[in-house]
């Protein structure tokens, strides 16, 4: 037999096994049967809870109807009392231990500076003597650039104002407009 045939047989066996694991449980409130897996059918359906903690038999925002719980068949044997099925609560949140840093003192935040922090005007590679605060006329141009004004015009810098010293000599006529 070929691999494809073996694969088909395996898929069919899994489908039949999965279908056999499903059981139909009818509820008293809903006219149509609802499908649940065999372990859930043994435990009984859990009631739908609202934020206030009460059971709700109304429809939610998605239009799904909350189903009332189906009582599980009591599994009693001679000499044992019938027990209620256990309901599982919400687990506690998992907190990583490295976040606590045991044995270390907490560092208090420092005070904010009272005066503005001085930053070098050309720390970002832009010459702030030209243009607005949003414009960045570069201090260093790419290799091979011989005409700085042509490079600036090609990159959208037209009629750039000279707001400080003309260190790059882009305003030869001294009218406070670079490369005009």
TrEMBL record:
Q: Which organism is it from?
A: Actinoplanes cyaneus
Composition-biased stretches (Basic and acidic residues): 54-63
Q: Where is the signal peptide?
A: 1-21
Q: What is this protein called?
A: Excalibur calcium-binding domain-containing protein
Give the start-end ranges of region Disordered.
42-93
Task: List keywords of the entry alphabetically.
Answer: Signal
Composition bias, Low complexity: 42-51, 65-84
